[in-house]
Amino acid sequence: MLDLGTSFLASVSRDPRELAIVDGETRLTYAQWYRIISSVVSGFDALGLKAGDHLVTVLQNRVEAATLHWACQFAGLVLTPINWRASPDEIDFAVENAEAKAIAYEGVSAASLRASAAARNLPRIAVGVPPEPGETGFADLAAREAPPAKPRADAEAISLMLYTSGTTAKPKGVPRRHRAERAAALAHVAQNLYGRGERTLGVMPLYHTMGVRSLLAMSLIGGTFVCLPRFDVAGALRLIAAERVTNLYLVPTLYHDLVHHPDFAATDTSSVRKLGFAGAPMTDGLLKKLTEAFRPELFVNHYGSSEVYTFTINQDAAGKPGSAGRAGLNTMVRIAPLGATDPEASAAPGEEGEIAVIASGDEAFEGYWRRPEADAKAFRNGWYFTGDTGFMDEDGDVFVTGRVDDMIITGGENVSPVEIESCLSLHPGVSEVAVVGLPDERWGKVVTAFVKRRGPVEEAALDAHCREAGLPSHKRPRAYVFVAEIPKSPVGKLLRRQLVAGAYDAETQGDPSAAA
């Protein structure tokens, strides 16, 4: 397997004049971008950075962030990107945990960086803002006279370290080797049937596995990464039309916002022929809406994680709603019975269990950064246990039902939120829905649906809808809460724990359609 620096050189050799990246007025071919990347590698040398050092970045999706990513691959640095919204404490944690040797920031993250004690004594790279005394401006790095960069890392070197989102504990570092990153990018190209010259909307964050995969995949096919610094629906629609974007790879929440935006109907989205989603299950209602809106040639449900990029792939997501498909090109998947002590045990077809993937797959990581207790929990007898619940049907297709921690045990019955959410999403009065279990003295947990309404609809109508859809009584919500917004993470994942904790805004009284 090639290292990523050599992989990029191959792209430059193959497609020197093809458009590689777009960011506002900036438009760079592969040859032009390589010259800038080479300058940044030289700048790393001037800062005293050496192969194996961690560079923390606190950046939005912009050309400089993508350039730093590729420069790290050439220089052998371990790119360690974190959320540009990170608090000073979160920056402190990342810098200290990764033992970072430098940090890059921009205007939107400047205040948090200034308040970070751990970042204070590091070399700092200022992106898009004037550098303060002692700092280095990215523009100065990019303007350096430098020879063409040569790769200094091999395929076994660590390419980057992503952090998983923490819930009750600190985030876990996920170091990934060059070979695993390239294998994942190749699989992404193959599984999404990307062809030469594809154009993708680069909006999934470059601190997230989906954003990184889009960036790397485009380089393999002479494609174009169209930067959108943060998700803005109107801005996304303008870029899709203006740059003739050919494929989208988003979380379901962003798709929802796209097709429900008032500008969608008037926007020319005819260039988009391939849709892919990951990060969360997609409701039946949204699958139907997207199929009608885009008429895509390919609609891929990609199920995976930061740790092991691909678990399963369904290349006809709308044809079998809810199915995550079968194991990807570089892995194997099985369902282990919930609570099983035998690591070789497999659940029967239709039996819900914990989803596990083979730990030796080409796309897999090899363990968390300095978290042996997390490794002991996740790895069992050569398999990585995902923490996700699901089952395999008689056809061998996987269905993801939620997280082990999200399972609702009500009256002794195990209830998965996803099935209920998909059912409710098909009601025309429902815009978004999240289902959780709330504490109850009698039942242990009661199934509770938090609903963002599209129009006037009440509990009785929603309960009748669930009955007509055939939901058994123990799965039907016993309570409904109407909210202004469903809380989500920066990459669009439902934050059920916030609903359980009461951290949500109730719908404005008397205006059930206000959130439409």
Automatic annotation (TrEMBL):
Gene3D superfamilies: 3.30.300.30, N-terminal domain of ligase-like (3.40.50.12780). The keyword Amino-acid biosynthesis does not apply. The lineage of its organism: Bacteria, Pseudomonadati, Pseudomonadota, Alphaproteobacteria, Hyphomicrobiales. Residues 11-369 form the AMP-dependent synthetase/ligase domain. It comes from the Bacteria. The keyword Iron does not apply. This is AMP-dependent synthetase and ligase. Belongs to the ATP-dependent AMP-binding enzyme family. One of its GO terms (molecular function) is medium-chain fatty acid-CoA ligase activity. InterPro entries: AMP-bd_C, AMP-bd_C_sf, AMP-dep_synth/lig_dom, ANL_N_sf. Residues 419-493 form the AMP-binding enzyme C-terminal domain. Keywords: Ligase. Transmembrane segments: none annotated. GO terms for biological process: fatty acid metabolic process.
